[in-house]
């Protein structure tokens, strides 16, 4: 599911703030540091990762949104994503009920 890096395309953005925000997100959510995500493919262009209390939905499609079926809180998003849909070439992290007691906030 990987695409080649566009080496010949100039970058107009500095990625450091984005990467710092991802590092802070990982630091603030212990499940990501302890266990990582359990990944599955839900469709040709949809990947879902689940960790204790979090669900990540990545939509690789260039044209089709992905509907979300449950009521969850958006914790982080990239592109066009909300609690109902993940737009094309977008991703969302949804907060779920922790699977194990005390899972959230553990460091």
List keywords for this structure.
disordered C terminus; five-stranded antiparallel beta sheet; 107 residues; two-stranded antiparallel sheet; alpha+beta
Describe the secondary-structure layout.
Layout: H1 16-28, H2 30-34, E1 38-43, E2 46-51, E3 54-59, E4 66-67, E5 73-78, E6 85-86, E7 90-95
Antiparallel strand pairs: 1-2, 2-3, 3-7, 4-6, 5-7
End-to-end C-alpha gap: 32 Å
Rounded mean pLDDT score = 83
Helix and strand run:
HHEEEEEEE
Please outline the major beta sheet.
Answer: 5 strands, antiparallel
Apparent shape: globular
Rg, please? 15 Å
What order do the strands of the largest sheet run in, or round the barrel if closed? 1-2-3-7-5
How many helices? The count is 2
pLDDT < 50 stretches: 99-107
How many beta strands in the DSSP annotation? Answer: 7
Structural class: alpha+beta
What amount of the residues lies in strands?
A: 25-35%
Percent in helix: 10-25%
What does this structure look like?
- The protein is of the alpha+beta class and 107 residues long.
- The protein has helices at residues 16-28, 30-34, and strands at 38-43, 46-51, 54-59, 66-67, 73-78, 85-86, 90-95.
- The chain has a five-stranded antiparallel β-sheet with strand order 1-2-3-7-5, with no helix packed on it. Strands 4-6 form a two-stranded antiparallel sheet.
- The longest helix has 13 residues, at 16-28.
- It is globular and about 45 Å long.
